[in-house]
Amino acid sequence: MNSPVYIQIHNEIKKAIEAGKWKVGERIPAERELSTQFSVSRMTLRQAISTLVDEGILERKVGSGTYVASQKVQEKVSGVTSFTELMEAQGKKPSSRTISYHTSEPSLSEIEKLQLNDGDLVLRMERIRFADSVPICYETATIPEKLVSDFSKSEVTKSLYKTLEEKAGLVIGRADQTVSAMLASERVSEYLDIKRGDAILRLHQLSYAQDGTPFEYVRTQYVGERFEFYLNR
Amino acid sequence: MNSPVYIQIHNEIKKAIEAGKWKVGERIPAERELSTQFSVSRMTLRQAISTLVDEGILERKVGSGTYVASQKVQEKVSGVTSFTELMEAQGKKPSSRTISYHTSEPSLSEIEKLQLNDGDLVLRMERIRFADSVPICYETATIPEKLVSDFSKSEVTKSLYKTLEEKAGLVIGRADQTVSAMLASERVSEYLDIKRGDAILRLHQLSYAQDGTPFEYVRTQYVGERFEFYLNR
DNA sequence: CTTGTTTTTTGGTCTATACCGATATATAAT
DNA sequence: ATTATATATCGGTATAGACCAAAAAACAAG
Lengths: 233, 233
Hints:
alpha+beta; three-stranded antiparallel β-sheet; 10 strands; about 30% helix
């Protein structure tokens, strides 16, 4: 039960937000102020904030402050591996919670996979998908920013594929997928309500447009106990 | 080039790995050592390592060190490929060790999957498959006994598909596959030279003949660290 | 009031140090 | 030789300070 301090602070701040201490879009106290309130160093406080930012509960703005992120609910229908279809086939109600949604610089692997040029930015989204309110997977999706710069957030989170097709004329082609097994990390295990070291089924998916341009890179971690892939060939 | 230092170090380490400075599975120098080599604090060095871990290029093990993540053997599921062909395509030497091979009464799930009649017997085989002498998976295959009663043991174990096609005129049709993640049991972990509780990628495959008759039920447990599926859609 | 400049606040990065628990290795005991 | 124990190594967490650049706020000039 001896969670690290930054996890404890993470939980306290999260509860405070859920209790309405700060409303959506509102600024929370500065890191230096919170660190004295919680009697920890700023770096430790930052670690707590970072996890909340990763979860999409908070958003940072340099020089301005840290804000309570706007809430979101969406369902993505991926024509390639449709979580929704899989869940409905089993009589489950699919839902999801977006944890983070922000533009940032791509990592090297993202540059490589998405064939980005120097200076290109990406939109990175993290979310948790549920079946009947039970967490099934933790998913990180990366899209080149230039592709979605004209779209609203809900257009991206709720039906990216439809939006891309209708507004950008992008026709979805093939997808490369790799499936592997791993053990749950501390962070992901808390998202998915499992134990650290539990079995995780990992899916990496790189989707291409019909012209061969990669446009979406998704990394998903499924709870081994709660999910299986069904493949036909 | 005004990138933060930890990004620069990230790039240097990544290039060094790609250049072969450390091989796959090898331990890279400790954080404290690298931090002095790069003349930065350990925290900064940790930030660089963290990004590489996030990208799946490195793996951390507390008390042990940081390792170059193993590049995994990939299976292409786009066609019905045998393990042998698969390994050869990747320049690995495939081999296998049969653990058991005998006829017996089917289990309930085997009766169901293979649509067996009362009194039907099955041939059950257990084996370990290797790539370059490294154990990759533990596999249990079940085949209706009547299908293979005319074949020799080597005909079944070495190239079942080929034998079935040539000698029984059975044309292979589709296959249903279920992929999931689990943890290694004590018994399987010894076969595969891993630890109990390590990640296992489990594949259940039910193969059908072109006329729709199921003829093979295979349950495979792949070592998560050494194997991944590659799906092309 | 509007516009341009300076100051302050804020998150982002970085240092140097410290202690903990998990792991590996060397050592001692049997 | 085998087994138990101590020691060293390693990543994980935490502290207290520091400087930077972006943004906001305060201020000055028109």
